[in-house]
Amino acid sequence: MNRLKGYIITIFMISLAVSIISGPINIDLSRYTKIFLVYLLFTTLYSHLKTVIRTGNVNVDYSISYSFSFVLITGPLGLFLFEIMNRFYIYFYRKRTGTADEDEFLHTFYNIGGPALLHTIGYYLFYELHPFVEGIPFGFWGLFIAIVTFTDFLSSLLLLSVFKLTGNIGTRQDAINFIKGRSIFDTLKMALSNGLLFIFLAEQHWEAVIALFVLNYLVSRSAAIKNQSIQHKIERDRFEQMAYTDFLTKTHNRSYMNKIMNELNKTDENIALIVSDIDTFKNINDTFNHAVGDSVIQHFAKTLKNNLDDADYLFRSGGEEFTIILKNRDFPSCVALLKQINHEVETNPVHAEYKGEDTTIYYTASFGMYYFKTNDKLNIKQAYIHADDLLLESKRLGRNQVTVMEDKGVSVERTTEAMKGYKI
Known about the structure:
14 helices, single chain, 424 residues, Alpha-Beta Plaits
């Protein structure tokens, strides 16, 4: 921590020294005050629209900066005084709103010294190189973009050195990824905005200056609102997924099953509603333990999931009970798939750890399937009851069975397949 403090204070003091050595403010006090107040007003407005990304225990602000145009008009000392006022406003605002970092005061000195020093470098580069490009078409803009890109790269290097001292950057790849993460479009936007501001200020077109600030503010605010809306949607989707997902098997839970059933209830499509259950599951828990039992449930869920298409649904509807909804299949295809699943369950045991040793557990499952067309005549929840009754029939007939029923509207056909020793 002492090394970080020393590093930041050194940057601040170098920036202060360079600003003083560079001489007085380049313009008269009246004009400087006017520019200072306009920049401060819009910079403080923009400070509420910043994208803040947490890197370790440090907050990194990403927003457009107008410091380069400011330093070109007022000089290094003018910019340094501006950064002091701007950054301490942000410091006190964050303290008041409870959004400050633990070391916000120290970071404020970095946020003053770092940008002021880098833009001073840009200041000298611009006035040294500008005469060489003055007669070249778009030479001004090429130089401006090049200097802004260069100072932005130097800013990344300064931040990397801070992250290195705080332990937030551990490897060379981390550093490369950080630099690659800087958006070239943000850099171009910053270059063009500062270039226009410099031209307008040099010619004292104040209406154009204000209009450009307002335009950038509206664009930034719109982007911030859109980003916030997207973030809220992501959070809502994540919470909804958590609410509809079974923790153990990562399949959908019963709440989501009820939701989907309500959606499918009157879609007028053929579906197969299957209720399945692991046979003698209580004996597995009693013989081994609940951890092994959980492994069996997970294995069963994975077997079911691996045999389904994207349009199908799998739900954990009870402890060891799962419900499947098959879509876009005819009745024979559903029966064939169900036989295949049952065969895979019977012939693929679970490998789990029990009392420190690898244990192989064979198990079977029973199924009840009701195939029907969703319509006003038959509620899907009634179909679920039929499928559940068919599962009970499979259990009653000796387990490891598939009992199916097809509702043809005018007649019902029922079939039971004993799966023991069954070969596909």
